[in-house]
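User: quick one - fold this with adenosine-5'-diphosphate bound?
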Amino acid sequence: MQIGVIADDFTGATDIAGFLVANGLATTQMIGVPDADARVAGEAVVISLKSRSNPADEAVADSLAALTWLRARGCKQIFQKYCSTFDSTAHGNIGPVADALLDALDSDLTVVCPSLPVNGRTVYNGYLFVNGVLLEDSGMRDHPITPMRDSSLVRLMEGQSRGACGVVPVETVEQGVDAVRAAIAAARGAGKRYVVLDAITDAHIDVLGQAVRDMALVTGGSGLAAGIARALCAPAQAGTSDAAAAGQPLAGRGVVLAGSCSQMTRQQVAAYRKIAPALAVDPARCVAEAEAYGAELAEWVLAQPAGADMPAPLVYATADPDAVRKVHDRFGAAASEAVETSFATIAARLADAGITRFVVAGGETSGSVVKALGLSGFAIGPQIAPGVPWVRAINKPYSLALKSGNFGAEDFFLDCQPLEVRAAFKEPQEAHS
Ligand code: ADP
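Assistant: Sure. Structure tokens for the protein plus adenosine-5'-diphosphate:
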């Protein structure tokens, strides 16, 4: 096993797994720390935890349990994965987990690299940007759980960890692999425990991937993982790798379940409603009778016309911020949970009725659906959009596309449909993409 990843949330785990596969490493994703005797295939394994915003001591304990499991599989490198927007509070959990992993691995230094240029996340002089705007001025400023009010990765890391933090600036990255390795060695010599790696382009990411491919522990987002995967896969293999084979989507009936209210999901729902049968979820009914209502919604899905050339029906709770606020004013936070319960019920019912392809929008919603279906892990398949691969359950006959709110382009739900449907509904020049 080349790489063992410890990811701090569920869709973040799917995101990095997708990038590893797309860059040549066959990858399995496990939900939570697996049993000691669980067997996995592939060259990389990603363990998804829920450790982004729980108390730091719990996040550390879960991460160390994951580390123990990964080391028992002989992983050559451990990758601590967090969001490319460095989602964390003043106290963690990125820093405390990194500290604990360094200690457990008997290492004295690791790198910090959330850069993901393909999704607009870049690092310059140790500052994190989102689509060209400082992190603290991006939408992350007002995130409900992890509001990011500082963009300096050095300050963020030093604030929540036990070590001093340096930077490898982009000028050094442009000088190539040896220069980056020398800069990391110099930081170590200067007593740094962490080094932020600048990267603005994928070319920078490639240099960094090669520079850190042999480190015992690295930390970062999916961009660095892609760079490391490219460094590990021999160039001769590029383009011929069958890394995604085990995760190719199954044939069969599908459904689209949208529980995210993020801006991109709202656009995706609006676009897909034009071509597929669609039903809006009433949150009030979820609160009143989450499971009975979920069963009713599942019956509606099953009553829709099915066939290889039919777009899968859409059930959506997706609403604009005003509507969501009204629901929360009326029912409190319990409303969101009730909506998730209804989606979980729909998914379980549909699985029993023979639906094999589940497209789910929303990080929490995806977590609820995966739990309801009783899935323990996935083989990762081809990417549908950056950060969103098809995944195939390893213990049940289901394929899933699990998308966190803002991922994917407007046509994402159509992109998840069988080729015949895409060919019928996409603009002619896009039909084969
Ligand atoms: P995202 O990835 O966009 O954050 P999540 O699924 O993680 O999406 O979170 C969305 C949350 O909002 C879920 O708990 C979901 O049940 C809830 N929700 C969805 N639609 C509504 C709605 N119309 N009113 C209130 N809550 C909703």
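One thing worth noting: Residues 429-433 have pLDDT under 50 and may be disordered.
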